[in-house]
C-alpha cells in the first residue's frame, strides 16, 4: 500500500511560507505558467535542480502550430486524433489546435526567436503530420531557445520568487482542497508552503527506464505526489518510446530528432536494407509507436542492438544548417551525420498519461492544477503527435492562469500532519534499487508486453513496497519512492488494458479492440483500477 505521505511531519511544528501561486517544476510548462500568473499574483517557483533542467531543454524538433496558409486547425486536429488512436478528447484537441498559434505568438513576445526563411517562419514536417507546421529554433535546438527566453523572463520578474535545489515532497490537502506543499530545503530542513493554487509542472517518467532521452530529473514526482493526494491518474500505460536515440559506446542516449526523418532520412538495418516499407505505408514518417516496434523487430531479426538512420543523400550544407546540435553532438563521438549512417535504437521519451485535468488544467482536487507532461489533458490519447507537447504546455498554461485569476483567496488550514512512526534508514543503496527497477521496467513493461511478463514485473515491484515504511530524507530516496509509485501505476494500467493501442502493445492481445477498450484507465489511491469512457469524436 502506498501511504498518503512520504514522510512524517507536524504542520504546526514547521515554518510556513505564504504566496498566491505555487509552481512546482520548470520546463516550458512551469516557466510559461509562472510568467502568466505573475501578472496578478505572487508566484513561488520551486525547482529541484534549476530552471534549465527539464525535458523542454532537450526538445529538438520544434513546436506544432497552424501558421501556414496551406494549413488549418482542422488538418492539425485530424492528425492529432489519428495519432492518438481513438483516445484523444476531441474538445481538448480543439483547444490545442485553435489556441496554439496565439501561444506561439506569446513565446515570441517573451523573447523566443524561431528560425525564418525569406521573411517567413521556417516550417518543417514531422511524422504523422499532413502539413509543414513545426516551428523550430537554431535548427534543432528549439527547446533550449524557449527555455533561454522564458528563464530570462522569470529571472528578471520581481513577481516571481525562485527556489532552486528545493524538493517538493508532498501536496498538502484538507477536505479535497490543495492548500500547498511540503518542501525540503537544500540543507534538509522542511517548510510548509501555502498558496491559493498549486500547479504541477514536474515533467514525465523517463527515468523509469535505463535508456531514456530524458534528463536525470524526470522521476515522475508530480504524478506520484498527486496520486498520494487522491488525484485521478489516467492512462499510465501509454508511455512513448522515441524510435531514434543515439546508440553508440560511450555516448548517452541522445535524441536524434524526428525532424531528421521529416527532412528525408531513411532507416536501415545493420545489413544496410531499408525496412519501413514492410511495416507501414507512411514509411519512416509512420507514428512513433509503429516505427519504434519496427526497429525492435529488425534488431531482433538481425541480432543487433541498433539500426541506422541515414541522411547522407542530403547536402552537407542542409544537414549542418538544419541540425547543427545533432551534427556537433555526433561529431564529438566520431560520427559525421553528412557521411555516416548513425546507429540508433528506441528509448523512453514521453508519458502520454498523467494527472487527469479538465480543459482549464484543474484536477479533481480543488486548487490543484497540472500542466505539461505531468498532466493528462486528453490531447495526446494513446500516442502523442510529434511536437504537440510544447504547444500543449503553453495553451493549457494560459488556461490554468485564467482559472486561477478567478479563484478567491485560500481559506482553511492543515489540521493534521503525518505520524506513521516510520523508523530506520533505507536498506541497500538507492542506486542499486533504481537500476533493478529500471531493468524490471525494460524487461516487462517496455515496447512489447504480455500478461505473464506484466504480472511478474508487478510482483517484483511490489517487493519494494516496504521502502515506504523507511525514513526517507535524501533527494534520491524521495525520487526513488516516486519512481516506484509511477512504475506500479504504469504496470497495473498496462496489465488491465487487454488490447494493443498506440504506445501500448500487448503480444497476447495484438489487435486494437474499440468495442471493449475505447476508454481510459483510471487509477486513484485506495480505489480499484477503473475505466472512463472517451468523448465522442
Explain how this protein is built:
The chain has helices spanning 27-37, 73-83, 90-109, 142-155, 221-229, 258-262, 288-301, 316-322, 324-331, 388-405, 430-444, 451-462, 475-496, 514-517, and strands at 16-18, 21-24, 43-46, 63-64, 116-117, 120-121, 123-124, 134-135, 160-163, 167-174, 177-184, 190-194, 197-200, 233-234, 239-246, 266-268, 307-310, 342-351, 354-356, 368-370, 375-376, 519-523, 530-533. The protein is α/β, with parallel strands linked by helices. The protein has three domains: 11-238 and 352-405, FAD/NAD(P)-binding domain; 241-348, Flavocytochrome C3, Chain A, domain 1; 430-512, Methane Monooxygenase Hydroxylase, Chain G, domain 1. The chain has a five-stranded parallel sheet, with helices on one face. The chain has a five-stranded mixed sheet with strand order 21-19-14-22-23. Helix 1 (27-37) packs parallel to helix 10 (388-405). The longest helix is centred in the last third of the chain and has 22 residues, at 475-496. It is globular, with a radius of gyration of 22 Å. The two termini are 37 Å apart.
Amino acid at each position: 500500500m502506498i501511504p498518503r505521505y512520504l514522510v512524517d511531519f507536524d504542520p504546526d511544528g514547521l515554518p510556513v511560507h505564504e504566496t498566491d501561486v505555487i509552481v512546482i517544476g520548470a520546463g516550458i510548462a512551469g516557466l510559461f505558467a509562472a510568467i502568466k500568473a505573475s501578472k496578478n499574483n505572487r508566484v513561488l517557483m520551486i525547482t529541484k535542480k534549476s530552471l534549465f533542467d527539464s525535458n523542454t531543454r532537450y526538445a529538438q524538433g520544434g513546436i506544432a502550430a497552424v501558421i501556414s496558409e496551406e494549413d488549418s486547425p482542422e488538418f492539425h486536429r485530424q492528425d492529432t486524433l489519428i495519432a492518438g488512436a481513438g483516445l484523444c478528447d476531441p474538445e481538448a484537441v480543439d483547444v490545442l489546435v485553435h489556441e496554439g498559434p496565439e501561444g506561439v505568438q506569446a513565446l515570441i513576445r517573451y523573447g523566443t526567436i524561431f528560425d525564418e526563411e525569406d521573411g517567413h517562419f521556417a516550417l518543417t514536417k514531422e511524422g504523422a503530420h499532413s502539413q509543414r507546421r513545426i516551428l523550430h529554433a537554431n535548427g534543432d535546438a528549439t527547446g533550449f531557445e524557449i527555455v533561454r527566453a522564458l528563464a530570462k523572463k522569470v529571472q528578471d520578474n520581481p513577481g516571481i520568487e525562485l527556489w532552486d535545489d528545493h524538493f517538493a515532497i508532498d501536496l498538502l490537502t484538507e477536505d479535497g482542497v490543495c492548500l500547498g506543499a511540503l518542501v525540503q530545503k537544500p540543507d534538509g530542513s522542511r517548510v510548509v508552503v501555502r498558496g491559493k493554487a498549486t500547479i504541477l509542472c514536474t515533467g514525465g517518467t523517463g527515468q523509469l527506464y535505463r535508456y531514456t532521452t530524458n534528463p536525470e530529473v524526470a522521476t515522475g514526482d508530480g504524478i506520484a505526489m498527486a496520486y498520494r493526494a487522491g488525484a485521478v491518474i489516467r492512462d499510465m500505460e501509454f508511455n512513448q518510446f522515441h524510435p531514434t536515440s543515439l546508440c553508440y559506446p560511450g555516448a548517452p542516449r541522445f535524441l536524434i530528432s524526428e525532424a531528421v526523418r521529416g527532412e528525408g532520412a531513411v532507416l536501415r538495418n545493420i545489413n544496410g536494407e531499408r525496412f519501413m516499407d514492410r511495416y507501414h505505408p507512411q514509411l519512416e514518417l509512420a507514428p512513433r509507436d509503429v516505427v519504434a516496434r519496427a526497429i525492435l523487430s529488425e534488431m531482433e531479426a538481425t541480432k543487433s542492438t541498433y539500426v541506422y538512420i541515414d541522411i547522407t543523400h542530403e547536402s552537407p550544407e542542409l544537414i549542418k544548417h538544419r541540425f547543427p546540435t545533432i551534427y556537433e553532438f555526433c561529431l564529438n563521438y566520431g560520427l559525421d551525420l553528412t557521411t555516416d549512417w548513425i546507429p540508433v535504437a528506441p528509448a523512453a521519451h514521453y508519458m502520454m498519461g498523467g494527472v487527469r485535468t479538465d480543459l482549464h488544467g484543474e484536477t479533481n482536487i480543488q486548487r490543484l492544477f497540472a500542466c505539461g507532461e505531468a498532466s493528462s489533458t486528453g490531447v495526446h490519447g494513446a500516442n502523442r503527435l510529434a511536437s504537440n507537447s510544447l504547444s500543449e504546455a503553453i495553451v493549457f498554461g494560459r488556461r490554468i492562469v485564467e482559472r486561477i485569476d478567478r479563484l478567491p483567496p485560500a481559506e482553511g488550514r492543515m489540521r493534521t500532519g503525518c505520524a506513521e512512526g516510520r523508523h530506520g534508514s533505507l536498506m541497500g543503496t538507492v542506486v542499486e534499487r533504481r537500476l533493478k527497477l529500471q531493468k524490471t521496467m525494460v524487461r516487462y513493461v517496455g515496447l512489447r508486453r504480455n500478461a505473464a511478463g506484466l504480472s511478474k514485473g508487478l510482483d517484483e515491484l511490489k517487493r519494494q513496497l516496504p521502502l515506504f515504511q523507511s525514513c526517507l530524507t535524501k533527494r534520491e530516496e524521495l525520487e526513488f519512492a516516486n519512481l516506484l509509485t509511477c512504475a506500479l501505476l504504469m504496470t497495473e494500467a498496462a496489465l488491465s488494458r487487454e488490447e494493443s493501442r498506440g504506445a501500448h502493445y500487448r503480444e497476447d492481445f495484438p489487435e486494437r479492440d474499440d468495442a471493449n477498450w475505447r476508454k481510459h484507465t483510471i487509477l486513484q489511491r485506495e480505489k480499484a483500477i477503473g475505466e472512463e469512457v472517451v468523448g465522442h469524436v
